[in-house]
C-alpha cells in the first residue's frame, strides 16, 4: 500500500485465548444480547479483561476482528485493516476499496479527510449490504488509540451509522468512544458494558486463583477479591505472585503484596519479578522500549534461550501477539511497569535500540528500523537507510514514515536525493504543495528540470486551473529520449493544458509526441495519458468514433496500471462524450464510478469536474433541482481549491438558471464565468459563457440587440471548441431578436451541420427549432418543429419537449393548441421552470396577460402586458427601490417620512421631499407609460403616505402566500387533494427568496423571512405527499429546493436520502447522506443513521 502504513497482518484475527481464562457465561449472554443492536461498547481501564473476554467470545462466534494501533489513526491504514478483517468473513467483498487506498492520494486528500472517511464508510457499507446474507459482528479492540479528530474515528462512526442492518459493531476501549452516540442510545441501538460489569465476582476471583494455583483457595480468594475489588488483571497477578510460594506461606506473602494505600498492580508485579531470574528481568526491561520483538530479535540482542523464555511469558499472560505469529509485545500493564520500575541503564537502552534498528533494517522492516534509529539519535544511519531503501518504503506504504524521518534530519545535512525523496513521498501522501516545495529545493527557479519532476510539478498547477504556470513548468522538462515513460506523461499533460486554452495546434503536436514516447516505453500509464488527450482532440475534430476508441484504450491502460488518477479523469472525460451525444444516463453511470473513486482517493479537482458534468447531464434530463445542487457543490469545491476552473460549473449554473427562467441569476453566473475563464484563457468555458450571456441579455434588454449580436459573434470566433454549437445557436437567436431572419437561418444551418458531425442530438434539435423560428413558410416550420420534438422525446429532454410544444401551441388553434400548451405547462412546472410555465398557462387559457405584473421572488422584474420592462426604462434606481418598498409593505400605507428615510437615510426631509415625488412619478410612468389609467390606479398617494394597490397589480409573492395559506388550511382541514393542488401551484411560484438582490435591506427582511418560512412548510408537505405516493424523484426535488434555502434542514436532508434509496439511486443516497453528516457536524449535531432500503419506508417526520 502506498501512502499510509503497511498491511494489518495478524491484527485482523483475535488474539489467542490466554491459558487459564475464566469462563464468564453472564458476559457471554450479555454480548449475545448486545449484538442484536447496532453497537456494543466495552469501556474500562487496562486490566479489566476486555480483549480476553471478546477474544474468548469471538472464538465461539463468527466475528470479524481488528485490533487498532496508533498506526491506524491514518485513514488508509484503518481502511486496509477493516478490509482485511471483513474479507476473512465476507470473501466476496471487493478488493477495489483496498486497491484505491493502496494508490497515491490526490492533492486534496488531507483537506478532504472527513469526507474521504465518510466515502470509505459508504463504500464498505454498500459492499456489505450487497454481500451479507447473515448478521455479522465486527469487533474493534483498543479503540482508545483513535482520537475524536482522527479520520479513522470518522470512518468507524460512518460505518456504524451507514452500515447495513445486518452489521453490528463491538468497540472495546479504555476511554469512551471518540464520537457521540446519544442518538443511537436514545433509539435503543447501544448496549454499554463498563468496568463495573467486567469486574470479577467473588466466584470468578476464586476460579482465577484456582486455575493458577491448581486448587481452591477460598480464604485467599476472599482476601484478593476485597483488596482488588474484582479487577481481573490484579486477581490473575495475585495468583502468579502466589504460584512459587508454599501453601503455608501464601497468606503472609499475600498480605505483604496487598499493603494498603498503594498501587495494587505495582506491588503484585514487584512480588512476581522479585522471584524471577535476572535473565527474565533483563528480557522484559529490554523489549519494553521496542515496537515489537521476536525470539530471533532477542537472540540477536544477546538474550540466551530467548524462545523458551518467550514461551513461558506468553503462557503466563505477560505477552500479547504483536500481529504475525512470531511477533510479540508486552502486556500493556507489564510494559508500563517495566518502563517505570525496571528501566534499563541508559547506555544499555541506547545500545539495544540501535541494535534493534539495525536488525529491523536487515530483515526489511524499514519502518521499525527508522523508528529505532531515530530514537537512538543515529541520523547518519537514518540517511543511509533512506538513500538505500526510501523508494521501496514509499512503494511499500511507508511514505509517512519517510517524510517524518527526513523532517527530523538537519536541513543542512540533507542533499538533493533526500529532498526529491521527500517530494515523492509527500505527493503520494497527497501533500502536493509540500511536494512542490521539496522539488523546488532540488531544481531551483530556472533552467531545465528532470522530466519526471517537471510533469509532477506542472500537474499541481494544472489541477488548480493555473494553466500559465502549468505550461511554463512543463516546458522546463528535459526531453532527450532517455526516459520515454516520463516524457510521454509530460507531453500528454502539457497537451491537455493547451487543449483547455483552445491552442489546438500545440495540443496536436504534443499529443502525437506523447503517443510515440508511450509506445517506445511500452508503459500502460503513459499510454493511458496519451490516448486520453488524443480522445479530447477527436472531440474537437468532430470524430466521435475516434473519441470513443481512444477513451476505451486509455481506460484499459489506466486500469492495468492501477492508476486511479487517470481512471477518474478518463471516466469524467468519457462522461462528457456521452453527454455531448445526449446519452445522459450513460454519462451519469460513468460519473458515479468516477465520483466514488475521487472521493476515496482525495482527488477533489476531478470530483469537482465530475460533479459539474453530472449537473450538465441532469440538466439535459430536465432535472433542474438536482442539476443545480450538483453544480453548486462543484462550484463550492472549486472555490475552496482556489481553482480558476470554477468557470466550468458557473457556466452550467448559468444555463440551469436560464432554462429555469431566473435571468438575473443566470447573468451573474455567466459574467463570473467569463471573468474567470478569460484570466486563464480557458476556451472550453469562455465560449459557452459568452453565448449564454448573449441569450440572457437579449431577453432582459432587447434594445441592446446590435451589441449582443457582436457578443455572440465573439463566441463563435474562437473556433472549434466544445461550445462552438452553443455559440452558433446563440448568434442565431440573437439575430432573430434583431429581426435578421437570414442570419438566424444561416447560423441554424451551420449549428445543425456541426451537431450532426458531433452526434450532438440536443444541439441538432435546437438548431431545428431556431431554423423553424427563422422560417416564414408554415409547412416547413411545422415539419422542423415535429422533427425537433421527436429528438427531444428520444433523448429524454422534458424541458426541450416543453419549449417545442409551446412553439407549436402558439402556431396552432383549437383543442390541439390547448393540449400542446397544457403539456408544456406541466413539463415546465415539473422541472421548476415556473416563469416559462406561466407563459404556457397563458397560451393554454388564451388569456391576455395582466396589465402589470411584478416579480419579486428570485429577482426583481416588472412585466407590462406580458413584456418585461427593460432596465433602460428605469432612469432612477431609487424609483425601483420605492416600488420594492411598497411591495414589501404589502399594500399598507407607508408614511412619506419613512420612505424618505429608507431611500435617503440621514438627509433632511426638506431636501429629499421633492426627490420622493419624482421617484413616485417615475414608478407610475414605468407601470403605465401610455397613461391608460388614472395616476393612482397602481400606486396611490396623498400628502402623508404612499401605497401600492394590490387589487390592480399582480405580484408574485402575494399570489404565492395566498395559494400557500389556502393549501395549508386545506391540509389542516383534512382535504389533501385540494391541498396538494393549491400547494403545488404555490411551490411552483416560489422561484427564489423575496428580493434576493436586496438581501441587506431591512425593509425587505420581514417579508423575505415570512415567505421563506411558508415555502419550507409547503415543500415539506409536498415532499411527504410525494413519498407516500411513491413519487420519489418529486420528493427528492422538493427536498433539494428546501436545502437550497436552508442547508441545515435535517428533515429535508433525510427525506432526500430516503427518497433516493426508495428510487434505487443508492449512490446518490450515499452521497446525500455524507453531505447531511457534514452539515450536522458543522452544527455539532449527532447525525441519524442511514435509512437503509429495508427500513426506508419508515416516516421520518418526527426526526
From TrEMBL:
Q: Residue limits of the Bacterial transcriptional activator domain?
A: 955-1089
Q: Which Pfam families match?
A: BTAD, TPR_12, WHD_MalT
What is the superkingdom listed in this entry's lineage? Bacteria
Which Gene Ontology biological process is one annotated for this entry?
A: regulation of DNA-templated transcription
Return the annotated region ranges for Disordered: 1-21
Keywords for this protein: TPR repeat
Start-end of each TPR repeat: 647-680
UniProt-recorded Gene Ontology molecular function terms: DNA binding
Cross-referenced InterPro entries, in alphabetical order?
AfsR-DnrI-RedD_regulator, BTAD, P-loop_NTPase, Sig_transdc_resp-reg_C-effctor, TPR-like_helical_dom_sf, TPR_rpt, WH-like_DNA-bd_sf, WHD_MalT
State the PANTHER family in the record. TRANSCRIPTIONAL ACTIVATOR DOMAIN (PTHR35807:SF2), TRANSCRIPTIONAL REGULATOR REDD-RELATED (PTHR35807)
Name the record gives this protein: ATP-, maltotriose-and DNA-dependent transcriptional regulator MalT
Organism whose genome encodes this protein: Actinokineospora alba
The taxonomy runs: Bacteria, Bacillati, Actinomycetota, Actinomycetes, Pseudonocardiales
Amino acid at each position: 500500500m502506498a501512502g499510509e502504513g503497511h498491511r494489518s497482518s495478524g491484527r485482523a484475527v483475535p488474539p489467542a485465548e490466554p491459558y487459564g481464562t475464566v469462563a464468564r457465561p453472564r458476559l457471554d449472554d450479555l454480548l449475545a444480547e448486545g449484538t442484536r443492536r447496532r453497537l456494543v461498547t466495552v469501556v474500562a481501564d487496562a486490566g479489566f479483561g476486555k480483549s480476553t473476554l471478546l477474544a474468548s467470545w469471538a472464538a465461539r462466534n463468527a466475528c470479524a476482528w481488528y485490533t487498532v494501533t496508533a498506526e491506524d489513526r491514518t485513514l488508509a491504514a484503518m481502511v486496509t485493516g477493516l478490509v482485511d478483517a471483513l474479507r476473512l468473513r465476507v470473501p466476496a467483498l471487493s478488493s477495489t476499496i483496498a486497491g484505491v487506498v493502496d494508490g497515491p492520494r490526490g492533492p486534496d486528500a488531507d483537506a478532504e479527510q472527513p469526507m474521504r472517511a465518510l466515502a470509505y464508510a459508504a463504500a464498505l457499507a454498500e459492499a456489505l449490504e450487497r454481500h451479507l446474507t447473515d448478521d455479522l459482528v465486527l469487533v474493534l479492540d483498543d479503540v482508545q488509540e483513535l482520537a475524536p479528530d482522527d479520520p479513522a474515528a470518522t470512518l468507524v462512526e460512518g460505518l456504524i451509522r451507514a452500515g447495513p442492518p445486518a452489521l453490528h459493531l463491538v468497540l472495546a476501549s479504555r476511554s469512551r468512544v471518540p464520537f457521540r452516540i446519544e442518538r443511537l442510545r436514545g433509539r435503543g441501538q447501544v448496549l454499554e458494558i463498563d468496568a463495573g460489569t467486567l469486574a470479577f465476582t467473588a466466584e470468578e476471583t476464586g476460579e482465577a486463583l484456582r486455575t493458577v494455583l491448581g486448587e481452591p483457595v477460598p480464604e485467599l480468594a476472599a482476601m484478593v477479591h476485597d483488596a482488588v475489588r474484582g479487577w481481573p488483571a490484579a486477581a490473575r497477578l495475585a495468583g502468579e505472585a502466589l504460584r512459587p510460594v508454599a501453601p503455608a506461606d501464601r497468606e503472609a506473602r499475600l498480605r505483604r503484596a496487598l499493603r494498603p494505600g498503594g498501587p495494587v498492580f505495582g506491588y503484585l508485579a514487584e512480588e512476581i519479578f522479585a522471584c524471577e531470574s535476572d535473565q527474565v528481568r533483563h528480557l522484559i526491561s529490554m523489549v519494553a522500549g521496542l515496537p515489537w520483538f521476536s525470539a530471533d530479535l532477542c537472540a540477536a540482542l544477546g538474550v540466551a534461550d530467548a524462545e523458551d523464555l518467550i514461551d513461558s511469558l506468553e503462557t503466563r499472560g505477560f505477552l500479547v501477539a504483536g500481529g504475525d505469529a512470531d511477533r510479540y509485545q508486552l502486556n500493556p500493564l507489564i510494559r508500563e511497569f517495566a518502563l517505570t520500575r525496571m528501566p534499563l541503564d541508559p547506555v544499555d537502552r541506547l545500545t539495544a535500540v540501535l541494535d534493534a534498528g539495525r536488525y529491523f533494517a536487515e530483515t526489511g522492516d524499514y519502518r521499525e528500523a527508522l523508528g529505532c534509529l531515530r530514537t537512538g539519535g543515529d541520523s547518519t544511519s537514518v540517511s543511509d537507510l533512506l538513500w538505500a531503501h526510501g523508494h521501496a518504503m514509499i512503494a511499500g506504504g511507508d511514505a509517512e514514515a519517510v517524510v517524518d524521518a527526513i523532517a527530523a534530519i538537519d536541513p543542512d545535512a540533507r542533499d538533493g536525493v533526500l529532498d526529491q525523496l521527500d517530494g515523492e513521498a509527500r505527493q503520494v501522501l497527497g501533500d502536493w504543495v509540500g511536494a512542490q516545495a521539496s522539488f523546488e529545493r532540488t531544481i531551483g527557479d530556472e533552467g531545465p528540470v528532470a522530466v519526471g519532476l517537471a510533469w509532477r510539478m506542472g500537474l499541481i498547477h494544472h489541477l488548480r486551473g493555473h494553466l500559465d504556470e502549468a505550461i511554463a513548468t512543463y516546458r522546463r522538462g528535459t526531453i532527450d529520449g532517455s526516459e520515454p515513460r516520463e516524457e510521454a506523461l509530460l507531453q500528454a499533460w502539457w497537451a491537455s493544458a493547451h487543449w483547455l486554452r483552445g491552442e489546438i495546434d500545440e495540443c496536436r503536436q504534443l499529443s502525437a509526441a506523447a503517443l510515440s514516447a508511450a509506445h517506445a516505453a511500452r508503459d500502460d500509464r503513459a499510454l493511458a495519458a496519451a490516448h486520453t488527450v488524443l480522445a479530447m482532440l477527436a472531440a474537437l475534430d468532430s470524430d466521435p468514433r475516434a473519441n470513443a476508441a481512444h477513451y476505451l484504450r486509455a481506460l484499459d491502460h489506466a486500469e492495468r496500471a492501477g492508476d486511479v488518477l487517470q481512471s477518474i479523469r478518463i471516466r469524467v472525460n468519457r462522461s462528457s462524450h456521452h453527454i455531448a451525444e445526449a446519452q445522459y444516463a450513460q454519462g451519469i453511470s460513468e460519473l458515479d464510478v468516477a465520483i466514488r473513486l475521487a472521493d476515496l482517493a482525495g482527488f477533489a479537482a476531478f470530483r469537482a469536474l465530475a460533479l459539474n458534468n453530472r449537473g450538465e447531464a441532469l440538466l439535459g434530463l430536465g432535472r433542474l433541482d438536482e442539476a443545480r445542487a450538483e453544480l453548486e457543490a462543484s462550484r463550492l469545491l472549486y472555490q475552496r481549491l482556489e481553482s480558476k476552473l470554477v468557470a466550468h460549473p458557473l457556466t452550467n449554473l448559468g444555463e440551469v438558471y436560464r432554462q429555469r427562467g431566473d435571468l438575473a441569476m443566470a447573468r451573474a453566473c455567466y459574467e463570473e464565468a467569463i471573468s474567470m475563464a478569460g484570466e486563464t484563457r480557458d476556451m472550453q468555458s469562455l465560449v459557452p459563457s459568452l453565448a449564454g450571456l448573449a441569450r440572457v441579455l437579449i431577453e432582459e434588454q432587447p434594445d441592446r440587440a446590435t451589441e449582443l449580436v457582436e457578443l455572440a459573434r465573439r463566441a463563435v470566433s474562437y473556433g472549434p471548441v466544445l461550445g462552438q454549437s452553443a455559440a452558433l445557436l446563440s448568434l442565431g437567436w440573437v439575430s432573430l431578436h434583431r429581426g435578421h431572419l437570414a442570419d438566424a437561418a444561416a447560423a441554424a444551418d451551420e449549428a445543425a451541420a456541426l451537431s450532426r458531425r458531433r452526434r450532438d442530438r440536443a444541439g441538432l434539435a435546437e438548431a431545428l427549432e431556431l431554423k423553424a423560428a427563422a422560417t416564414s413558410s408554415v409547412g416547413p416550420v411545422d415539419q422542423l418543429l415535429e422533427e425537433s420534438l421527436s429528438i427531444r422525446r428520444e433523448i429524454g429532454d422534458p424541458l426541450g419537449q416543453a419549449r417545442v410544444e409551446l412553439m407549436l401551441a402558439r402556431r396552432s388553434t383549437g383543442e390541439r393548441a390547448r393540449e400542446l400548451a397544457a403539456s408544456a405547462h406541466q413539463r415546465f412546472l415539473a422541472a421548476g421552470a415556473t416563469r416559462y410555465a406561466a407563459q404556457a398557462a397563458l397560451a393554454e387559457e388564451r388569456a391576455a396577460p395582466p396589465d402589470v405584473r411584478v416579480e419579486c421572488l428570485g429577482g426583481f422584474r416588472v412585466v407590462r402586458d406580458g413584456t418585461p420592462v427593460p432596465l433602460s426604462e428605469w432612469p432612477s434606481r431609487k424609483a425601483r427601490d420605492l416600488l420594492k418598498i411598497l411591495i414589501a409593505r404589502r399594500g399598507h400605507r407607508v408614511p412619506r417620512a419613512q420612505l424618505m428615510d429608507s431611500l435617503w437615510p440621514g438627509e433632511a426631509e426638506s431636501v429629499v421631499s421633492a426627490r420622493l415625488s419624482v421617484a413616485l412619478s417615475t414608478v407610475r410612468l414605468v407601470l403605465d407609460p401610455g397613461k391608460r389609467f388614472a395616476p393612482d390606479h397602481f400606486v396611490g398617494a396623498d400628502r402623508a403616505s404612499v401605497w401600492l394597490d394590490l387589487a390592480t397589480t399582480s405580484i408574485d409573492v402575494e399570489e404565492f402566500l395566498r395559494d400557500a395559506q389556502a393549501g395549508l388550511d386545506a391540509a389542516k382541514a383534512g382535504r389533501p387533494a385540494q391541498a396538494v393542488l393549491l400547494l403545488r401551484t404555490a411551490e411552483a411560484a416560489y422561484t427564489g427568496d423575496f428580493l434576493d438582490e436586496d438581501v441587506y435591506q431591512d425593509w425587505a427582511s420581514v417579508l423575505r423571512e415570512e415567505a421563506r418560512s411558508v415555502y419550507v412548510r409547503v415543500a415539506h408537505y409536498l415532499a411527504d405527499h410525494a413519498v407516500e405516493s411513491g413519487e420519489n424523484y418529486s420528493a427528492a426535488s422538493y427536498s433539494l429546493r428546501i436545502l437550497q434555502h436552508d442547508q441545515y434542514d435535517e428533515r429535508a436532508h433525510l427525506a432526500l436520502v430516503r427518497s433516493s434509496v426508495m428510487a434505487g439511486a443508492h449512490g446518490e443516497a450515499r452521497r446525500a447522506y455524507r453531505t447531511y453528516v457534514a452539515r450536522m457536524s458543522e452544527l455539532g449535531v449527532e447525525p441519524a443513521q442511514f435509512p437503509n432500503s429495508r427500513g426506508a419506508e419508515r416516516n421520518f417526520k418526527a426526526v
